[in-house]
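(Fold this chain)
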Amino acid sequence: MCNMTFEETGGENSSERMESVAKALEEVLSSALPQGCITVGVYEAAKSLNADPDNVVLCLLATDDEEDVALQIHFTLIQAFCCENDINILRVSNMRRLSEILGGVKPGGEPMDLHCVLVTNPQSSLLKDPALSKVNRFCRDSRCLDQWVPVINLPDR
C-alpha cells in the first residue's frame, strides 16, 4: 500500500536520499558477505532463486555495458521471477565499487560475475538489519512511483 505524502514523494530523487540508500546497501553487502549470505553470478543466482526463493531478501542487477543483449534477457527473466516472488530488486551502477565491496575475485584469482548478486537470509538477524530495512523501504517506495527496478549508484570511496 502506498500512502505517501507530498513531502515524501517530492524528495524521492534527492541526492541525500540516494546517498543514504547507497550507504545502506553497502552496509547490507558488507554484513552479509562474512555470513555467507551472498550469491554472485547470473547462473548461480538463477539456481538459488529456483531452489529457495523464500530465502532471498534482495536481488541486485549490475552492468556497465547496456549493449549486451544476452545479459539484458537474463535480467528480464530474473526481474520477472523476483517480482512474482516479492523479492526486492535494485539496479546497481558502478560495478567497480560493487567489486571492491564484495572482494571481486574468486579463490584462484578469476574475477567474479557480479552482474547478478543475491542477498540471502539464513539467519533471522539479517531481517532485522536497519540498513536492509532502509533498502527495502526504498524499493517499496520506488514501486509506488512505478519504478519497479530503481537504480542506485554506488559512490566511489
Q: What stands out?
A: The radius of gyration is 15 Å. Residues 32 and 116 are 15 Å apart (CA to CA). Strands lie at 38-40, 56-62, 89-93, 116-120, 151-153. The first helix runs from residue 6 to 10.
